[in-house]
Design brief:
Elements (H helix, E strand, L loop, with lengths): L2 H40 L8 H32 L1 H5 L1
């Protein structure tokens, strides 16, 4: 296994991690931004106010994108395990 192959496997792993975490992180970012604007407009400075809406948004995104995320992980792992013979020999 060459250093280039190792770098390619690492790149694919990072790409998979980013693809799987992006919907959840974007949902938390958008909800946090909306709650922050609301807090600034109403001058309510409560740190715990953001926790529940973010949690609900992440839960909803996980329900909506969960099957796609699971399929993406399964495809990545099958490709990785399927390439083991070429990597060894």
């Amino acid at each position: 296994m060459t250093p280039g192959t190792v770098m390619e496997i690492g790149r694919q792993a990072i790409e998979a991690a980013l693809m799987l975490s992006a919907p959840l992180l974007l949902a938390a970012l958008v909800v946090g931004l909306i709650i922050s604007i609301f807090q600034a407009a109403t001058q309510i400075n409560e740190a715990t106010l953001q926790f529940v809406p973010k949690l609900v948004a992440i839960f909803l995104v996980l329900i909506l994108f969960g099957p796609w995320m699971l399929q993406y992980m399964v495809d990545y792992i099958q490709r990785l395990f399927g390439s083991i013979p070429q990597l060894i020999g």
